[in-house]
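Two folds, back to back.
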Amino acid sequence: MPRVVVNVMPKPEILDPQGKAVTGALKRLGFQGLSVRQGKRFEIEVEGEVTPEVLAQIAEAAEKLLANTVIESFDVVAD
């Protein structure tokens, strides 16, 4: 079954406390020079072919439900 991935990330101007916590933990473990922003990944299985119409439908679903577009951005990727 084909799969489409929706990646959701905080917008750059939005604080990301989870990402900061992971960045701090990595530094304590000896990983220097890394900066983390934490987001969400949704894998959506599609019945049939992944067409531009299906991608548009998934983008609409992401805008309405999967992402808070006030503070998050998203992209839709055919896997």
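---
second:
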Amino acid sequence: MAIAPITGKLRKRFWLDLSCALGLGIGAGYAYWYGSHLRDLERQESYYVKLERERAKAAQ
């Protein structure tokens, strides 16, 4: 009893797999960028502005 080879599986689902992978990847990238990275960057920038103001105040 021979088992029939599985043929055409990759070709049939290629576009679905590719579009899901790209969609999920881009979605995760946007979620990280706008949900975490920009918030951390804003917190860092405000800390440096505070340091610069304290340094300028101490220099006077």
